[in-house]
Input
Amino acid sequence: MQQVNNFQELQVFEAPELNRICDSLVNKIKELTGNNIFLVGSVSKVLNGDLPESYKIKDVDFAVFNNDFRKLQNCRHSLLEEAKSVELAPRRIIIYLPYIAVEIWNANDINPDIQLFKNKIPYIKCQSELKM
Output
């Protein structure tokens, strides 16, 4: 499978390490599930122009759908080698990194408005419908 480095290429975050980690996570999940993951939460709102670029993010949220979430639950400890710890919470996996958390949400029963940031990074535009 071809590795993608869209976060690094587009410099989505000011911190190069966070871009590298997001690319690593995207590639790992694509390898495990065969499907894309989608940015959600405040980062996707910044990408869509709904929040200013200066907005200080607290975490990075991604979403997958039911079957993929079940697959990821079983291998959650191997998703990112940089993880300090990994927690399984209702409807999400929380990966704690030294300086930020990455959350993978189980988003189901929706018809999301999937957009592409600069034709490369999938994100869900309208998240008010997400059942998280």
Remarks:
- The chain has one domain: 6-124.
- Residues 53 and 75 are 33 Å apart (CA to CA).
- The beta strands are 38-40, 59-64, 85-89, 92-96, 101-106, 114-117, 121-124.
- The chain is about 30% helix and 25% strand.
